[in-house]
Amino acid sequence: MKRLLIIAFFVCISVPALQAQGIFHYYTGLILPDKDAPMRTDRLGVDLYYNSWMETPQGIKISPRSIGVNVFRIYDIPFGHSPIGIGIGYALSSHNVHHNGQFIMGVDSVSGNEFTRLEPYPSGYSYRKNKLSINYFEIPFELRFRSKKKPNKNGIVRGPFRFYPGFKVGYLANIHTSRKNDQGKFKEYNFNVLDRFRYGATIRIGYGKFALYGFYSLNNLFKNKESTVLQPFSVGISFLTF
Question: Domains in the chain: how many in total?
Answer without folding.
Answer: 1
